[in-house]
Structure formats: structure tokens, C-alpha cells
Amino acid sequence: MSISTLRIATRQSPLAMWQAEYVQSRLQQLHPDLTVELVPMTTQGDKILGTPLTKIGGKGLFVKELEQAMLEGRADIAVHSMKDVPYQFPEGLELKVICEREDPTDAFVSNKYHNLDELPCGANVGTSSLRRKIQLLKARPDLKITDLRGNVGTRLSKLDDGNYDAIVLASAGLKRLGLEERIRSQFEPELMLPAPGQGAVGIEARTNDPELDAILQPLQDETTSLRVLAERTITKTLQASCQVPVAAFATIDNDTLSLRALVGGVDQQIIEASAEGSAKDALAIGQKVSQELLDLGARELIQELAASADH
Ligand SMILES: NCc1[nH]cc(CCC(=O)O)c1CC(=O)O
Ligand 1 centre and the CA of 85: distance in Å? Predict the structure, then answer.
């Protein structure tokens, strides 16, 4: 048995399509004899884009249909923004590779101001991300943070309609879509710690298929994988849903991995922790930082958030 055609299940948003086409073209280059097809799909999450994420049970809704397609043999792989992938995979599926990371920062986007410092007192900033909201308010408690959902293009249109003084988006998404010129400035990770996995694309596929693994393996980027492993260990250990503002960002310099993470609470409190060590101990470093967050009261913050979201 030999794989001659590989089908990529993908959402149809421009960003998802870019990512799927990126993997398609890299695979096609690596394996000229392989046919690589896209299987575009609409997920439950896409159908209810207007509803706040926290009300619809989270980001998992964007990957479920893709996973169903793979489990039923209608597709072979799914390409994801690692930021949006839940930690747990369904029986029969697993994360195969993580590709080289694009810019992991968040971007300040505005038609009037160059950066956060230039925003006037009480300015209106659009984001639906609790992670972005708590960090914006930490730096600028005077700001008014307003909900902003939809695909990258939709969010930019809402900014252009004059509804916001500025919005915050992932730099990676803007760059991939050729919208880099919309970035007024990039947030330093110290000021706006990115989401776990931000800027990295990963591939999910069925377990127990060595031939498929061999096809995908050349796309694996070791440095990115170790960084994202450390970052995602925070999400996993804290079992934080998307109602919880969590940020985690790892860098690797000369084989030393440095990880910083934070968790936010109902009243904008922030708990943070960091650690560093040998890059090969990425998992252990992630566990150490998670434990420190728990020791500092992260569990209580998360329970408080869950209770307040139920009301
Ligand atoms: N939540 C949607 C989403 N998922 C991944 C990206 C950007 C690309 C990436 O982080 O890999 C975005 C858009 C954004 O947050 O601005």
C-alpha cells in the first residue's frame, strides 16, 4: 500500500487557506510524485462567527469537522494554527509536526496612532481575546476594550469603519495574508505575551501510519516544536479553557530555553512565572512554570473565572 494522493482538510477562511496551501506547496516540492489536494470545509465555529467564543464552548468548534473528516477517511491531514488547537486530540489522531514559526508577536493596528503610547486617554481598542485585554489594561488601565470578532479581514474592516481607535491582531496572520503594511508596531513580548503556539502552524493526522509520518517529517522544525511544547504544557497543566486569559512564550538561545507564562483573573489580576533550562527539557520547563503558576494561585483564578462565566 502506498500513498499517492494526500488530502488536506481545511477551513475556508483566508488565513486557514493560506496555511493549507503553504503545507500543500511544501509537500508538493518535497514529494513531486505525490498529489496534494485541499478539502475545504465549513466548521461549526465558522457558522456562528458572530457569537462570542466564550459562549459557544471554545475554539474546539473550529477543528471538530476537520477531525471528523480525517476519522471518516475523507481527508488525510489537517493544518492548524497551533494557537487554536486544543491540547487533547481524539482517539486515532495526533499532532505530527510543527512547521517553522512565523513572527509570534501581537500587532498594534490603527489608522491614527502608531503605538499604544500614542493612544489618547480612554481610547477604544478592539479585541475579543481576554489575553490581549488584560495585558492592554495592565499597560493602560484607562483604555476601553471592546469586543471584536471575525476573520482577520472582517476585523480590519471594522477598524476602517471607524468603530475603534486601534485593534490588536497576531502579526503572523497579517504577514501571511500580505497585510504586513497594516502593522503600525509590534508589541514587545514583555508587554504583550503571546498565546501558546502563536505564529506556528501544525499538522494533525491519523496515528499508526508510518508512511504518512515519513511524508510529513521533513516539515518538522525542531526549535519551534520545543518552544511550542513548553508553551502548550501550560495550557495542558492548567486545563485552561478559552474563558481563561493565558499567555506563554518560549525562546531558545544557544540551546537555552526561556519560558514565561501568565494567567489572568476576573478583576484583571495577573499571575506570572518563568523558568529556563536546556532546550531538550522543554516539557520539564513547561511543567515547572505551570507548577509555579499553581503555587501562586492560578487554580483559584481559573475557578473564579469559570464561576463568573456561568452567570
Ligand atoms: N484566533 C484566530 C487566529 N488564529 C491564528 C491567528 C494568527 C496566526 C497565528 O497565530 O498563527 C489568528 C488571528 C489573530 O489572532 O489575529
Answer: 11
